[in-house]
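Subject: for your reference before the review

Hello V.,

The reviewers asked for a structural picture of the protein, and I figured it would be easier to keep everything in one thread rather than splitting it across files. Below is the amino acid sequence we used in the manuscript, unchanged from the supplementary table.
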Amino acid sequence: MNRVSYYGVHRGSQRDCPPGTRRVGHFIQKLYNNRITFSSAPSAPMDITTIQEIIREIDGATNILLTAHHKLDPDSTGGILALYLILKKLGKKPVALCYEPVPKNLEFLPHITAIEHDKKLMQDFIITLFNPESDVNEIKYSTTAEGYINIIITPKKGSYSEQDVSFKGMTNKFDLIIVVDSGDKKNMGRLYEENKELFEKTTVINIDHHASNDYFGDINLVDTKVSSASELVYYIIEHMDKGLIDEDVATYLLLGIIADTGSFQHANTTPDSMKVAAELVRRGARQQDIIKNLYKTKKFSTLKLWGKALARLSVDEKARVLWSSLTFAELSQMQAKPEDTKGVIDELMSSAPDVDFIILFTEIAPKTVSVSIRTKSAEVNGVQIAKQFGGGGHVQACGFTKEDVALEELSEEVIAAVQKYQQERLGGPAQTSTQHNPPLGAEERIARRLENDLFR
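And here is what came back from the structure prediction:
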C-alpha cells in the first residue's frame, strides 16, 4: 500500500487492524455541457483488493441489510440509497434501515421511502420435533400468568418424548450487512444495541472515510483520503458494472460528495472527487436539485435559529476559537430540529476570520448536548478535542454528544480543552481570555456572507 490511510480485508479481532457552492457547481456543470472528458473514467485511487472482496461477498449474498450511523445525513443517505438500487438491479433482496427519520431536506430524493425506520429485525427460533412413528394432528399454544409459553402438539398416533425435540436457536434472515459512513458500531444507535447477536453472526462490510473509524467490520473499506463514503461506494459500483449507474444512483452519490465537501469548498476536495462528480453529472446526476435542496431552501425556523446563534457568538482571540450555543428551549420555541443547526456552523466555517476552531454547542434535549467542531486547517486536529469527550470524526470536522450535562458547563470544559491544545500547539502562556463578541469587523463580514447566501 502506498497511501497513508489503511484499507483492506480483515477478519478476526479488530484490535489487530492498523489503527464556494455556486462557482464550483457551475464548473462541474460546465464539464458536462462542454463535454470536457478525461483520459478515462475516474478509478478507485487504491488497491482494489478490498473492493473485489466486497463484490464477492455481495455476489454470494441474497438478503442484505444496509444501514449507517443513526443520524442520517446526505452522505450516509446517498450511499445507502445508491447501494439499495444497485442491489435491486442485481436481483438481491436489500433492506435499508435506520431507526431515525431522514432529514426533511432530503425528502426530494426518489425512492427515499426505501429507507425504513420502524422495521424490527425479528429472528425465528426453530424448535424441531422428529419421530417417524408419530404424525402431528394439531399444534396450539397457551401462555401462563408468569409469561411462559406452552406449545402443545397432539399426535395422530403414538406419542412424543423429550428426546424427539431439538433446538436450532435463532435463525439469521440476512446473509450480509453493509454499514455506510459509521465510525463504529455504537454510532448505529438502537439498531445495533437491539441486534448485537445479528451483527456478531453476520459478515459486516464497513465503508467509511472517518479517521476515527475503529475497523469494526469483517471487511473494512476505510480511506480517510477520499471526500465521502459516497465516493467509496462509487468505486465499488464502478468495479461491479459501470452500466449500473443510472440518473438516480448518480444523484445519490453526487449528493454525498457535494454535502461532505461543502459543495467542493472544504479541504477534503480532491482531484479524484472532482473527477467522480463530473462523471456522475455526465451520467445524469441532478446537480441543481441537490444544490437547491441542500443550500437554497431554508425554513423560517432555521433562519431564526441562525440569528440566535449569531447573536451569541463568543471568541477567544489568543486561542483562535469562535463558538456559539443553542438551548433546547430555543429549538422548541422555534419548532426547529437539531439538524437545522448544521447550516450555522457551515456558514461560520466559511465566514469567520482569524480563527482555527469553530464550535457549536446544541442542547438537543434537556441536559443532552451535541457538540460540532470544525477547524480551518488540517494542521489543527479537531479530533484530539472530540476524543477527550468520547467523540470522533475527521481532523477538520468532528464532534460528540454528551448526556446528563449542563450546556454552559460542557461548553466551558470544551473551550478549556481547546485553549490548552492551542497553547501547546502555538506556544506561549495558557489562554484564558474570552471575548463575548466577534473581533471588530467579523460580525459584519459574517452577516454580509449570510445575506448573500440567503437572498442570492
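For the response letter, the relevant points are probably these. The radius of gyration is 25 Å. The chain is about 35% helix and 20% strand.

Happy to draft the paragraph if you're swamped.

O.
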